[in-house]
Write a structure and sequence with these properties.
mainly beta, four-stranded antiparallel β-sheet, Jelly Rolls, single chain, 164 residues
């Protein structure tokens, strides 16, 4: 009889219980026995997995120096964690204020796009602490008051953690 280490692939056996295990289950250890089960999300240590349940939406405001409101549909439930903007050109005259609002119009916060010293590539960020949770099917809006002068696009990225 050959040693176990000398067995060919076709002679190897499956884990105990595999022939009666349900589809899409994995073998796990439980109290010294092998148990076949589906893995739930709370059984996974996701601390080393980047961007778990993260969604990023980017919208363009055509001209931050013109009052405009842009609406986005959210097909998921989630929490808005951060908002970041990138200015595409120098603005002049006055600061522009960008406000992020939830589905009912409540402010999740504002960003000031400063005209003094502004330049293409300027980045501003916001970390909302209120009015930042959403259910699937709601909207979010991003608006500029258009107080500055000089035409400049503004790219806005919204970072969410999906909760459902």
């Amino acid at each position: 009889m050959p040693q176990h280490s000398d067995l060919l692939e076709a002679e190897l056996h499956e884990n105990k219980g595999v022939s009666t295990a349900s589809n899409n289950t994995v073998a796990t250890a439980s109290g010294g026995a092998t148990v076949w089960q589906k893995i739930a999300s709370n059984n996974i240590d996701a601390t080393s997995i980047f961007t778990t349940n993260k969604v990023y939406l980017t919208v363009t405001i055509a001209d931050v120096s013109t009052a405009e409101v842009v609406y986005l549909y959210l097909p998921f439930a989630g929490t808005l964690n951060t908002v970041g903007t990138v200015l595409q050109n120098t603005i002049t005259g006055a600061d522009s204020t960008v406000t992020v609002r939830n589905h009912s119009g409540g402010s999740a916060g504002t960003l000031t796009i400063a005209y003094s010293g502004s330049a293409a590539g300027d980045i501003d960020t916001l970390t909302p602490v209120s009015n930042n949770t959403f259910t699937a099917g709601q909207k979010i809006s991003v608006e500029t008051n258009g107080n500055s002068t000089t035409v400049s696009k503004l790219f806005v990225t919204l970072a969410f953690t999906v909760t459902g």
